[in-house]
């Protein structure tokens, strides 16, 4: 059992926030140059995580969102997945984190849910990404930024094929709990649909990301906790935007209290 699993249903854990903004302040184009920076300027990545560690996040999320083979090929990093995986985890090791999650985002390939070949290709993208981390020390995977059930299903099946590490599965939703992707909108997919599907496919933690105000986020949290037979820990991510409801620390603190009260 992963060490982090021993804390499920017992502790409230805080994950580190995305480091893209911190990297931008350090002069790194995180969208295009993160892989290069990991390999050749690791101290810059460490600096981006320093404030996260000092802020008390118990769980550091590795900068590995774009680690599927398709994304590495687009970045000109084919064949360097294993090296990038080691570099990403080594950048966090300096802070002696309590726990580390390996983030994986949607692979970016077109997905046709009616095509077996398309589904298999998507599934294998995540299986191959997971294998880059074979033999390395981390606590689980974070599937993050998914906007529809079909893409998340492929990712969950791919990870299950390649690893037995716990999986945290998160979907992006609006204030009404509807998944934000176009395919999800056409199918009227809801937060509950995603939670149940992720639980059925072995996710250890289920959750969502939203920019909705704190009251709405708390209602979504309560819905996630009550999603049918899903009795898993719930992850809530609040999207911070300059003109959004979480633009200042006090608002985030108030939201955290409301989320804890919601379960």
Number of helices: 11
Which percent bin holds the helix content?
A: 40-55%
From the spread of the alpha carbons, the general shape counts as globular
**Gap from first CA to last CA:** 24 Å
How many strand units? 6
List keywords for this structure.
263 residues, alpha/beta, six-stranded parallel beta sheet, 11 helices, 46% helix
Written account of the structure:
The protein is an alpha/beta fold and 263 residues long. 46% of the residues lie in helices and 13% in strands. Strand 3 (140-146), helix 7 and strand 4 form a beta-alpha-beta unit. 44% of the residues are buried. The mean pLDDT is 92.
Secondary-structure map with pairings?
Elements: H1 20-25, H2 30-40, H3 42-54, E1 59-62, H4 69-74, H5 81-93, E2 99-104, H6 116-131, E3 140-146, H7 149-162, E4 167-172, H8 182-187, H9 191-200, E5 205-210, H10 214-225, E6 234-238, H11 249-261
Parallel strand pairs: 1-2, 2-3, 3-4, 4-5, 5-6
Helix pairs in contact: 2-3, 3-5, 6-7, 7-9, 10-11
Describe the structure concisely.
The protein has 263 residues and is α/β, with parallel strands linked by helices.
